[in-house]
Write a structure and sequence with these properties.
Layout lengths: L12 E6 L5 E6 L2 E5 L4 E5 L8 E11 L5 E5 L18 E5 L6 E7 L8 E5 L7 E4 L3 H4 L5 E2 L2 E2 L2 H5 L2 H4 L11 H9 L10 H4 L1 E4 L4 E5 L3
Parallel strand pairs: 1-14
Antiparallel strand pairs: 1-4, 2-3, 2-5, 5-6, 5-7, 7-8, 8-13, 9-10, 9-14, 11-12
Pfam family, one: Thaumatin
Protein name: Thaumatin-like protein
InterPro entries: Osmotin/thaumatin-like_sf, Thaumatin, Thaumatin_CS
């Protein structure tokens, strides 16, 4: 999805804000995890040596014990409050990679792991204020075959075939009726694996970012 380079990077700061009326358990890889009640923020400082693709998402309906072990209805990362692994679909995903082509940061909002909460991802520096937002009622409009108790699955997760997943350089990898429907609802987000042209955005390296769950 995002091309990656392994040279030195800027250690950006991500401010994660919960604007949902309910509690979410924010997750970041790298970064860990944090319970966020309505109105709370979590500041995630990236590792200056990190050169992979990073991701941030919300988990819902979680229960954790005093040791940070438990489970979440959506976005669960192997039952841990502090995430070090990919979350379980469905989850609305904010993704980023530093210092890509022309020394730019690449960032996007992806529905390739489905949808659980509305999300906004934006640059906060003066020279980059690009906003990516997906606030449509995707859970309410979710087709029956993709429904999950806490969200809406991407068809790749459910059907696991090349038409929706485009595995192993499958060609052609084209939009489907499912992805076109999502694109109509959220035009700036990833809806199928080759959706780069309309769904990957850039900011100068050195930009800081904000992720908002349930934006206005």
């Amino acid at each position: 999805m995002l091309s990656l380079k392994s040279d030195s990077i800027h250690a950006a700061t991500f401010t994660v804000h919960n604007n949902c009326t309910y509690t979410v358990w924010a997750a970041a890889v790298p970064g860990g995890g944090r319970e966020l009640k309505h109105g709370q923020d979590w500041v995630v400082n990236t590792d200056p040596n990190f050169s992979d693709r990073g991701s941030i998402w919300a988990r819902t309906n979680c229960e954790f014990d005093a040791n940070g072990i438990g489970k979440c209805e959506t976005g669960d990362c192997n039952g841990a409050l502090y995430c070090v692994s990919k979350g379980k679909p469905p989850r609305t995903l904010a993704e980023y990679a530093f210092r890509q082509f022309n020394n730019l940061d690449f960032f996007d909002v992806s529905l390739m792991d489905g949808f659980n909460v509305p999300l906004e991802f934006r640059g906060t520096s003066s020279d980059c204020t690009r906003v990516i937002k997906c606030t449509a009622d995707i859970n309410g409009l979710c087709p029956t075959e993709l429904r999950h108790s806490g969200g809406c699955h991407h068809p790749c997760t459910v059907f696991k075939n090349n038409q929706f997943c485009c595995n192993y350089n499958y060609s052609p990898c084209n939009p489907t009726a499912y992805s076109n429907s999502l694109k109509d609802l959220c035009p700036d987000v990833y809806t199928y694996p080759k959706d780069d042209a309309t769904s990957t955005f850039t900011c100068p390296n050195g930009t800081d970012y904000k992720v908002v769950f349930c934006p206005n």
